[in-house]
Specification:
heterodimer, A: alpha/beta, eight-stranded mixed sheet, globular, B: alpha/beta, 26 helices, 25% helix, elongated
Chain lengths: 435, 1014
C-alpha cells in the first residue's frame, strides 16, 4: 500500500504538478480491514494498550485486546496509536477560502433572525483547507454560519466527499444564537474616530437585554405557531427552529461573559431547549452552575491569551480543567484564522498539559464533541456498531512532536491523506533534490 | 437680545478705571487711581515670608507698599482685613483660557478618504500640518469672563495659555484673568513654546504613530538648524523660521504619561533642550526615572473617580493597575516632592476647574506639603516663565494679583472672599467677608412696645432666638441682606418674620407678625461666637498600596536580582557541538553561564534541582510586536526615520506572559504598513525594567522592510498612495536607495570641501536617508516582510545592485520556492510554522517551508509575529519535526540559536555555552513537547518567571484587588465621586494582517490603523 502511495505521489509531481484535484474521495469500503498490535484510544477514556479494531462495510465490528486474524486487509499498528476520527465542533470550513477576499466568503448572511439559513448548502467540498485537516486526523466538522442574532443551522460534514450532499453527516442539528452583548467594552479609539460611545455600562446591558427579550419573543411566537398545525402563511423562520422544541436540534449560544452565559441558561429554562455554550471563555467561573443546569460547552482554541492582564497567564490552558472537574460536558474546537483548524489536537494536548488527562483531552475532540453534536450514536469513539471513523498516528496525536497521521478511515473508506501543501512539498523536494 | 448683550459687554469694559490712551472714550473720562489699602491682614508675601498684622497698598494695578510699617495714602480706600489672609493669587502655567478650541473637521476624519500626503495649510509654511509654529496664542486670545471667573474662584490670577493642537503648537501667551481689554491683560506675548506627540486636528496622514511624531520633531530640529543658512531651494519656510525664533522662550512639552515623559525628555537631550514637561498623572509609578530627566514638571490634579464596582461581574474586568492607580493617583504630586523634583501645579485636565481646590487639598492630604503646593502655584511658574518680577509673590512694584481669604489658603474650611486681579476686585465669596456669627441683641418694635430677644447666629444659614425659650429661627445672611423668621414661643405656629440690611454689625429692617402687624427692628452685635478649630488638617494621610514594577498585575515590589545558582542534573540542550547532555549541571554566576559539567559545585550557590527536567537557551523571537506604544508609521511609503526604540512600553503584560512561555529575547519590529518601515529594537524580556533597560545592549541595528499586499494597501478601497502594485514596491526601493546614494555623495563632497573651506554649507541632514545610507554601508540590517517568490527575488536583486545583503527575510512563506536564490544571496529566513491562507499572498504557504529551507542550507528561524503564539514558540518549532522531519535539536535551534545568528547576537545568547548570557529556560518536560511548561525563565542570571512565585503572586494580587475594590465600594457609599466601571482595555500592536482573536478586552491597534487609513 505504502509503495502505491509513493508511486502516486511521484506521479503527481511528474504530471499533475500542484493541484489537489487529484486527491479523490475514497470509494466505499470493499474489504474487511483489521488494525492489530496498536494502542487503541477508544475516545471514552479507555485505552487498549495492545489491541485490535475490525471494521467492515463502514462499521466497526470488533474491538479488543490481544490479537485477531479477522479481515482480508491487516494493518500492523505496532507502536502506533489508533484514535476515533477527530471532530471540529465549530468551523467555517468550506464557507470561506481566503478571509481577505470577499468573493470567497460565504459565512455571514444579512439579517438579525436567520434560523432558516442552512450552512451546508454553501459548503465547498473542494476547499484547499479541507485536506490539511484530514491529514491531521480531523475527519468531521460542524459547519457554522455567522451573523445576526440567529445565524442559522449548522450541519456536520465528513471531510472526504465529492459534494455537500455526499458530505452531510448530520443535517441542521444546531441553531446558532449570538448572544446580544451584555458586556460594556468601550473602544479607546472610538473618540479619535469621532464615534465615541456615550453609553454607560448600564445602557449596554439594558440594550442587550432588550434584544434578548425580542429574541425570546421570536421563540415564544414560534412555540405558539407550532400549536396550530395548519397555517395560512408558512413562516420559514419558525419552521426552521421546530427541532429545538422537540429536542431534535440544540441551541448553540455564542457568548463569553458570565452575564451572557447566565442569560443563556435562562433560555434553556424557559424553553426547555438543549443549550450549548460556544466560545464561553469565562465559563470556568460558573462551571458548577453549568453542570447543575446540564449545559454543555464548546471552548474555542486553547492557544489563546487570558482575558485580563491580571488573569493566570495559563488560564486559557486551564479552563478545560475547571469544566472537567465540575463534570461539565465540553468539547474543544480550533477556529484559528491563520491555521484554520488543523491544530485541533494540539489545543486538546495543551488542555491535557494543564490539568485534564490525555484521554479526557481526546474525548473533547472526539466522543464528547460527538455527544454535543448529537452524533455519538454513530461516531466519536471506537466501539462496535459505530461508523469506522478511525485515525492512525505514528505517535501521540495530541503532541505535534509525534503526531503524524498515517491512515484515516471515514465510514471504513481509506482516506487519501494528501493535500496541497504536501504536493508543493514534493514539488520542491524534487526541485532541490531533497530526499 | 444679542445687541443688548454686546452692548453690556462694551459697557463692562468701558466702566473700568484705567483706560488705554490710544482708545477713544465714548463719554466723559473717568480716571481713577484705584488706590486701596488693606490693613491688619496676615500677608503671605511668598512661600517663606508671612507678615502678621500687615498692610498692603495698591495703586493703578500695582502693589505700592507692603509691610507692617506702611503709611496709608490719604486717597486710599481702606479695607480692614483683620483676621483675614492675603496671598499672591495662583498662576496656572498650563491653561487654554481664552483660546478657541481647535476645530476638527465635522464628523471626524473620513477614513475612507484617500491618504493625505501633504499639508492642507495654505501659504509659505512647512510640509507637515502638525507643525504649527505659526500659531501665536496672543493673536488668538480673547478674554472670556465666564472661564476667567471659574479660574479666579479657584484662586488663580494669571495663566499661561496656548492652543493645544498639533505636535508643535506655537507660542503661549501669559495673561491675567482680569475682565479687561486684552491689551491690558496680556503680560507677556510670547511666553513659551509648546509641543506634544499628538498631531491634533492635522488631517495629514503622517505621522500616524508616537514614533512618527518623535521622528517628525527630530527632523524638524534638524531642518530648522539647516534653514538658518537660508537654503535657496527651500525658499521661504515660515514654519521653520518661527521654530527657530521660538527656541528662546521656555519650551513646554505635553506628555500624557510616564513613558511619554521620558520620550519627550530624550528628544530634548538630543537637541540640547530641557523641556518643562506637562505630566499626565501616573508619573509616580516611575518616579526615579522622572527625577532622572532633571526637568521641571507641570502636574495636573485630575484624579480618577472611584469606579462603580459593586457588581462582581463588572469588577472582574477592571485590572489591578487601574484599581491601584485610583488609589495612588492623588499622591502623585507628593511623590514628586519626595523625590526632590521641581514642579508646578495646573488645573488643566480637570473636567471642571471648580474641582481644583478640592483636589489640591486631596493632594495635600496624600502628603504634598503646603509650602511646595504654594510655590508650585506661585513662584515656580512665575520664575519658569520669567515673570516673577511681576507676579508670583506680593512685592512692591508687582502686579496687584492677590487673594483675600478667611484663613490659611489650603485649609479645608477656608474660603476665598475676593480675588484681586491687576488691582481690580473680583468677588468670590464676599458675602462671608463679614463674619455674622455671634450674639446679637434683637429689638422688635411692635405696636405693644419693644420686645427684646437674644439672637444667637451660628452661621450665615442658621440662628437661634432666645427670650424665655430658645427657638430655632430660619435665618439667612449674604453679608448685606438679612432674613429671619422665628416662632413667637416654643411650639407656637405664630411666626415673626423679619428682613433688613446689615451695616457692620448693626442690622435693621422691617417685619410682620402672625397677625399682620408691621413693625421695625434692630439687632446689635454683642459678642463673638466661641471659636471652633479647623479639624480638617489633623486627618492622618490615607493608607495606599505599594508601587510595583511594572505597575499593576504581576509587578515586582522588589525587583528580582542576579543570583549565583547551580542547576543540577538536568538534560541540557546546549545547541553546541556537545549536543544534548544528560544529567548535567549548569552554573550561573554574574549573569553568565559559568560552567557546564557533571557534579559541579559552587559555594553559596542556590541549588535548583533539574532532575527529570530540560534546560535550554531562552527562546528568541525574531518577529514580535509586543512592548511598544505604536508599531506602524504608515503615513508614508518610506519611514526609515522612525524607531521602535523611541516608544517601547515596558508595562505590556505580554512580556510576562511570554516569559512564562520561555521567551527571553524579542525583536520588536515595525509593522508592515509601508515598504520601508521603521528601525527595530531588540529587547530582553526584563519584566519590570524601564524602556532603556529593556534594550538588548550592543545589538546590531536593524530595520523593517515590507513587500506585497500590506504595503500596497490592498484592503484600502481608494488607495492613492504609491505603490499600488508589486511593480511599484520595487521602484520605491530603487528610488529610496538611489536617493540615499546621492545623499551620501553630497555629504562626502561636503566633508571634503569643509577641509578647504570651513564656511562650506552642509547638506540637509535627513534622518530617513541616514538610515538607508547605514544599510548600504552594512551598518544597519534589513529584516524584510516578504511572501511571494516574485517579490522575494526582486528585493534580493535590488539589494545586490546597491551592494548589500538582506539580512533576514521574515514571513517568507514562499521562501521554499526560491530557497536556492536566497541561499546564493546569503540571507537568513524567519518564518511561521503553519500559518497560511489568511490572505491571497499566502495561499501557497506550506507547513514544510521551514524544513525545505533548512534542508537547502538556509539559517531558519521560526517567529511569532503574535503575542499569543510567542507563548509557545517551542510548539511551533516542534512542527518542523512533524512537517518535514527536521531533527529535534535543529528544530529547537530554530527558536534559539538560529534567530540569535541572524540578529548578530549569537556571541551572547542562543546556546548554553560558558561565557554566554545566562538566558535559560528550565522546562518540566521535553522542550518540544506539548506537555512541557517553562518552570523558570532566566534572563541575565535573574529569574524573571518562576512558576512557584507566580502562584504566590496570584494569591497576593487577588487580596490586593479585593482590598481596593472594597475601598472603592466604601468610597461610593460615603458619597465620594464615582464613575461607571470601565473595563481595562488592552491595546495590542500587531503586524496588521491576521485573523486571530485575542480576547474580550483586546483592541487591535492594527485594525484601528487600517480603519483609519483605508
Amino acid at each position: 500500500m505504502k509503495k502505491i502511495f509513493l508511486f502516486i505521489n511521484i506521479l503527481f509531481v511528474a504530471i499533475a504538478a500542484f493541484s489537489q484535484e487529484t486527491v479523490y474521495p475514497a470509494k466505499p469500503q470493499s474489504e474487511k480491514i483489521t488494525i492489530i498490535n496498536a494502542t487503541i484510544h477508544v475516545g471514552n477514556g479507555t485505552v487498549i494498550s495492545n489491541g485490535y479494531v475490525v471494521f467492515e462495510n463502514g462499521k466497526i465490528t470488533a474491538v479488543g485486546e490481544g490479537s485477531t486474524n479477522a479481515g482480508s486487509k491487516i494493518i500492523d499498528g505496532k507502536g502506533k496509536h489508533v484514535y476515533p476520527g477527530l471532530i471540529q465542533s465549530i468551523s467555517q470550513l468550506g464557507l470561506v477560502e481566503v478571509n481577505s477576499v470577499r468573493a470567497t466568503i460565504d459565512h455571514t448572511e444579512i439579517g438579525t433572525y436567520n434560523p432558516n439559513i442552512r450552512s451546508m448548502v454553501a459548503y465547498n467540498t473542494d476547499s484547499k483547507v479541507i485536506n490539511t485537516l484530514k491529514s491531521n486526523g480531523i475527519l468531521f466538522a460542524n459547519i457554522v454560519p455567522e451573523g445576526g442574532i440567529i445565524s442559522g443551522s449548522s450541519s456536520v460534514v465528513q471531510l472526504d466527499a465529492w459534494n455537500w450532499e455526499d458530505a452531510t453527516y448530520k443535517a441542521d442539528g444546531q441553531i446558532h444564537l449570538n448572544m446580544p452583548s451584555l458586556f460594556y467594552r468601550p473602544n479607546p479609539f472610538a473618540g479619535f474616530r469621532g464615534q465615541a460611545d456615550t453609553r454607560t455600562p448600564a445602557d449596554v446591558v439594558k440594550e442587550g437585554l432588550d434584544k434578548v427579550e425580542e429574541t425570546k419573543s421570536f421563540f415564544r411566537e414560534a412555540k405558539a405557531y407550532f400549536k396550530e398545525t395548519t397555517h395560512s402563511k408558512i413562516n420559514l423562520k419558525f419552521e426552521a427552529v421546530k427541532g429545538l422544541f422537540i429536542k431534535k436540534q440544540k441551541l448553540f449560544v455564542h457568548c463569553d461573559v458570565v452575564r451572557e452565559m447566565l442569560v443563556a441558561i435562562d433560555f434553556a429554562k424557559e424553553f426547555g431547549f438543549d443549550v450549548v455554550l460556544v466560545g464561553a471563555s469565562e465559563s470556568w467561573q460558573i462551571a458548577d452552575l453549568l453542570k447543575q443546569n446540564n449545559i454543555a460547552v464548546i471552548l474555542a482554541e486553547r492557544h489563546a491569551l487570558p482575558t485580563m492582564a491580571d488573569d493566570d497567564v495559563d488560564l486559557p490552558y486551564k479552563s478545560a480543567t475547571y469544566l472537567q472537574n465540575a463534570g461539565v460536558l465540553f468539547a474543544i474546537t480550533d477556529e484559528d484564522g491563520q491555521t484554520r483548524g488543523r491544530n485541533l489536537s494540539f489545543n486538546a494536548g495543551t488542555a491535557a498539559a494543564y490539568g485534564i488527562t490525555k484521554e479526557q483531552a481526546l474525548s473533547s475532540i472526539t466522543l464528547n464533541a460527538a455527544k454535543i453534536l448529537g452524533i455519538d450514536n454513530i461516531t466519536g469513539s471506537i466501539e462496535t456498531g459505530k461508523d469506522a471513523n478511525i485515525v492512525i498516528s505514528d505517535g501521540d496525536i495530541l503532541d505535534m512532536k509525534s503526531s503524524n497521521v498515517s491512515y484515516a478511515f471515514i465510514q471504513g473508506r481509506e482516506v487519501n491523506l494528501d493535500n496541497k501543501q504536501k504536493q508543493l512539498y514534493e514539488r520542491y523536494k524534487y526541485k532541490y533534490g531533497i530526499k | 437680545m444679542r445687541k443688548l448683550a454686546f452692548f453690556s459687554w462694551l459697557l463692562f469694559f468701558s466702566t473700568l478705571s484705567r483706560a488705554q490712551e490710544t482708545f477713544p472714550v465714548n463719554g466723559v473720562a473717568d480716571n481713577r487711581s484705584g488706590t486701596y489699602a488693606f490693613t491688619n491682614a496676615t500677608i503671605v508675601k511668598d512661600g517663606s515670608t508671612t507678615i502678621p498684622n500687615a498692610t498692603m497698598v495698591i495703586k493703578e494695578g500695582k502693589i505700592t507698599a507692603i509691610g507692617t510699617n506702611v503709611s496709608v495714602p490719604a486717597d486710599a480706600v481702606v479695607l480692614d482685613c483683620k483676621g483675614k489672609f492675603i496671598y499672591p493669587s495662583f498662576i496656572d502655567i498650563y491653561a487654554d483660557y481664552g483660546i478657541p478650541a481647535p476645530q476638527r473637521q465635522p464628523g471626524g476624519f473620513n477614513f475612507n478618504a484617500p491618504a493625505q500626503l501633504t499639508s492642507n495649510q495654505k501659504g509659505p509654511f512647512g510640509w507637515n500640518q502638525a507643525i504649527r509654529t505659526d500659531v501665536n496664542a496672543a493673536t488668538l486670545f480673547s478674554a472670556d469672563e465666564a472661564k476667567a471667573k471659574a479660574l479666579r474662584e479657584s484662586g488663580f490670577g494669571s495663566v499661561l495659555t496656548h492652543q493645544r493642537d498639533g505636535i508643535a503648537r506655537g507660542t503661549g501667551v501669559f495673561v491675567t484673568l482680569a475682565s479687561e481689554k486684552e491689551n491690558k491683560v496680556v503680560l507677556k506675548e510670547k511666553a513659551s513654546a509648546h509641543y506634544s506627540f499628538n498631531k491634533g486636528t492635522s488631517t495629514q496622514s503622517y505621522p500616524s504613530s508616537i514614533m512618527g511624531s518623535i521622528a517628525l520633531l527630530r527632523q524638524t530640529y534638524l531642518d530648522a538648524q539647516w534653514y538658518k543658512n537660508n537654503p535657496t531651494a527651500e525658499g521661504v519656510n515660515l514654519t521653520l523660521k518661527y521654530w527657530n525664533e521660538e527656541q528662546s522662550v521656555p519650551q513646554i512639552f505635553e506628555a500624557s504619561d510616564k513613558w511619554s515623559v521620558l520620550r519627550a525628555d530624550k528628544i530634548g537631550d538630543e537637541f540640547g533642550v530641557q523641556y518643562i514637561i506637562k505630566a499626565g498623572g501616573n508619573e509616580y509609578q516611575r518616579i526615579s526615572e522622572m527625577a532622572g530627566t532633571k526637568a521641571w514638571f507641570i502636574i495636573p490634579l485630575n484624579f480618577p473617580a472611584a469606579m462603580d464596582v459593586e457588581d462582581p461581574q463588572d469588577a472582574r474586568f477592571v485590572a489591578l493597575s487601574d484599581l491601584k492607580h485610583w488609589e495612588m493617583a492623588p499622591a502623585n504630586a507628593a511623590m514628586f516632592e519626595k523625590a526632590g523634583i521641581n514642579f508646578c501645579l495646573t488645573s488643566s485636565d480637570l473636567r471642571d476647574v471648580k474641582q481644583f481646590l478640592a483636589n489640591l487639598r486631596k493632594a495635600i492630604e496624600y502628603g504634598l506639603s503646603e509650602s511646595k503646593a504654594f510655590d508650585a502655584l506661585t513662584k515656580n511658574p512665575a520664575t519658569l516663565l520669567g515673570v516673577y518680577d511681576e507676579v508670583g509673590s506680593l512685592e512692591t512694584g508687582k502686579v496687584a494679583n492677590f487673594l483675600i481669604s478667611s484663613g490659611p489658603i489650603f485649609a479645608e474650611k477656608t474660603v476665598i472672599y475676593q480675588n484681586w486681579v491687576q488691582g481690580e476686585k473680583y468677588a468670590v465669596k464676599e458675602a462671608l467677608w463679614n463674619d455674622v456669627k455671634g450674639s446679637y441683641n434683637l429689638v422688635v418694635n411692635t405696636a405693644g412696645g419693644a420686645k427684646n430677644f437674644t439672637l444667637d447666629v451660628k452661621s450665615s444659614m442658621s440662628a437661634a432666638v432666645i427670650s424665655k425659650d430658645t427657638v430655632q429661627g430660619k435665618f439667612s445672611s449674604d453679608g448685606k441682606l438679612v432674613k429671619l423668621s422665628f416662632p413667637e414661643a416654643k411650639g407656637s405656629r405664630n411666626n415673626i418674620m423679619l428682613s433688613g440690611t446689615s451695616t457692620n454689625r448693626i442690622w435693621s429692617g422691617v417685619g410682620d407678625d402672625a397677625n399682620g402687624n408691621h413693625f421695625t427692628w434692630t439687632a446689635t452685635f454683642i459678642k463673638e461666637a466661641d471659636a471652633k478649630t479647623d479639624t480638617s488638617r489633623t486627618k492622618p494621610a490615607p493608607k495606599i498600596g505599594k508601587i510595583n514594577y511594572p505597575f499593576g498585575g504581576y509587578g515586582f515590589e522588589t525587583m528580582p536580582v542576579q543570583e549565583t545558582f547551580l542547576i543540577k542534573n538536568a538534560t541540557v540542550w546546549t545547541n553546541e557541538k556537545e549536543g544534548i547532555l544528560l544529567n548535567t549541571d549548569v552554573l550561573v554566576k554574574n549573569g553568565k553561564i559559568a560552567a557546564i559539567g557533571k557534579n559541579l559545585s559552587e559555594p553559596g550557590a542556590k541549588i535548583i534541582d533539574g532532575t527529570g527536567k530540560h534546560l535550554t537557551a531562552g527562546i528568541i523571537d525574531e518577529h514580535s510586536h509586543i512592548a511598544a506604544a505604536s508599531i506602524n508609521e504608515g503615513g508614508q511609503s518610506v519611514t526609515s526615520e522612525v524607531r521602535i526604540a523611541d516608544n517601547l512600553n515596558p508595562d505590556d503584560i505580554n512580556i510576562y506572559r511570554q516569559l512564562s512561555g520561555g521567551v527571553t529575547t524579542s525583536h520588536i519590529l515595525h509593522g508592515s504598513a509601508n515598504t520601508i518601515g521603521g528601525q527595530t529594537q531588540l529587547i530582553k524580556l526584563r519584566w519590570g525594567a524601564d524602556a532603556e533597560e529593556l534594550k538588548f545592549a550592543g545589538a546590531a541595528p536593524f530595520i523593517k522592510f515590507a513587500l506585497g499586499e500590506n504595503v500596497k494597501r490592498t484592503t484600502a478601497t481608494q488607495n492613492n498612495r504609491f505603490p499600488d502594485t508589486r511593480m511599484g514596491v520595487s521602484q520605491v526601493l530603487m528610488d529610496a536607495f538611489t536617493r540615499a546614494k546621492e545623499y551620501e555623495a553630497a555629504w562626502k563632497k561636503y566633508d571634503e570641501e569643509k577641509k578647504k573651506n570651513p564656511k562650506a554649507v552642509a547638506p540637509r541632514r535627513d534622518l530617513e536617508l541616514d538610515a538607508l545610507v547605514e544599510i548600504i554601508n552594512k551598518k544597519r540590517f534589513i529584516t524584510c516582510h516578504s511572501y511571494v517568490q516574485s517579490e522575494i527575488t526582486d528585493i534580493l536583486r535590488t539589494a545586490e545592485k546597491f551592494g548589500f545583503t538582506l539580512k533576514t527575510l521574515t514571513h517568507i512563506l514562499e521562501g521554499y520556492k526560491v530557497a536556492d536564490k536566497i541561499k546564493q544571496h546569503g540571507a537568513n529566513v524567519s518564518t511561521f510554522s503553519d500559518w497560511w491562507i489568511y490572505k491571497m499572498e499566502v495561499v501557497d504557504a506550506i507547513a514544510y517551508n521551514a524544513a525545505i529551507m533548512q534542508k537547502v542550507g538556509l539559517n531558519v528561524a521560526i517567529n511569532s509575529d503574535d503575542a499569543e503564539m510567542a507563548r509557545h514558540l517551542n510548539f511551533e518549532a516542534a512542527k518542523a519535526i512533524k512537517y518535514g522531519g527536521v531533527s529535534e535539536e535543529e528544530a529547537l535551534k530554530m527558536v534559539t540559536l538560529n534567530p540569535a545568528k541572524m540578529l548578530h547576537v549569537d556571541d551572547k545568547v542562543g546556546s548554553i555555552k560558558v561565557g554566554k548570557d545566562a538566558d535559560l529556560v528550565l522546562w518540566s518536560d521535553h522542550p518540544l513537547s506539548i506537555y512541557t511548561k517553562a518552570e523558570k525563565t532566566i534572563v541575565d542570571g535573574i529569574i524573571y518567571f518562576d512558576r512557584e512565585k507566580d502562584k504566590q503572586m496570584r494569591i497576593d494580587m487577588a487580596k490586593e484587588r479585593a482590598r481596593i475594590i472594597a475601598k472603592m465600594i466604601n468610597e461610593k457609599k460615603a458619597g465620594g465621586p464615582t464613575s461607571p466601571y470601565s473595563p481595562s482595555i488592552e491595546i495590542m500592536q500587531t503586524c496588521s494582517d491576521h485573523y486571530h482573536n485575542h480576547g474580550l478586552l483586546v483592541v487591535d491597534a492594527a485594525e484601528e490603523y487600517q480603519t483609519q487609513n483605508q
